[in-house]
């Protein structure tokens, strides 16, 4: 899950840097992945997708997210199953019940956010968008950022570095 989160954050930064050069200096990855304690139910799926998608391809983040969506059943025949998203996601986070209200809010927000960013990607013809569909990566990026930004207090590591990482995620990932 951590590797997937990092890949999605890097991809999202690529898109955001076009619009906001101040986002060129992200916090170190270990802060992004360690500030909000989450469960690891996605690890096996992410590991499988890591093996299937070579790291050196430019379209890796798009294809990796598409793989995760396919493996979890969130996509079928290249169509995102929006009606299954809440059910599948809540099942993946069932051991971390504190996230349930955050998941509900993120699901409501991220479809629209992702579709708006997809328009930008199509306008700038971002490398890799023609190899795998970018929408799963955009949804996943938004969703993981929402989990991070709205991390329940009981799971948040309240350090200066984590506060800076949260500010970065709020300004550079969610705008």
TrEMBL record:
Pfam families this protein is in? OBP47_like
| InterPro entries named among the record's database cross-references | OBP47-like_dom, Odorant-binding_protein
- The residue range of the signal peptide is 1-19
Query: Which residue ranges does the record assign to the OBP47-like domain?
Result: 53-167
Chief location of this protein within or outside the cell: secreted
Keywords from UniProt, A to Z, are:
Secreted, Signal
Answer yes or no on keyword tRNA-binding.
Answer: no
Subcellular location(s) per record = Secreted
Which family is annotated? Answer: Belongs to the PBP/GOBP family.
The name of this protein is OBP47-like domain-containing protein
Report the source organism.
Hermetia illucens (Black soldier fly)
């Amino acid at each position: 899950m951590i590797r997937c989160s990092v890949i999605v954050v890097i991809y999202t930064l690529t898109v955001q840097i076009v619009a906001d050069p101040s986002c060129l200096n992200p916090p170190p990855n270990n802060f992004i992945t360690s500030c909000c304690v989450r469960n690891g139910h996605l690890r096996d799926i992410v590991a499988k997708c890591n093996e299937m998608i070579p790291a050196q391809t430019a379209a890796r983040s798009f294809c990796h997210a598409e793989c995760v969506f396919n493996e979890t059943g969130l996509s079928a025949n290249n169509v995102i199953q929006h009606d299954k998203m809440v059910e599948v996601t809540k099942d993946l986070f069932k051991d971390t019940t504190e996230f349930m209200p955050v998941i509900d809010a993120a699901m409501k927000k991220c479809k629209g956010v992702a579709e708006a960013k997809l328009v930008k990607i199509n306008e700038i013809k971002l490398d890799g968008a023609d190899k795998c569909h970018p929408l799963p990566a955009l949804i996943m990026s938004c969703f993981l950022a929402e989990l991070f930004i709205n991390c329940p207090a009981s799971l948040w590591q309240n350090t200066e570095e984590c506060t800076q990482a949260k500010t970065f995620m709020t300004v550079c990932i969610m705008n």
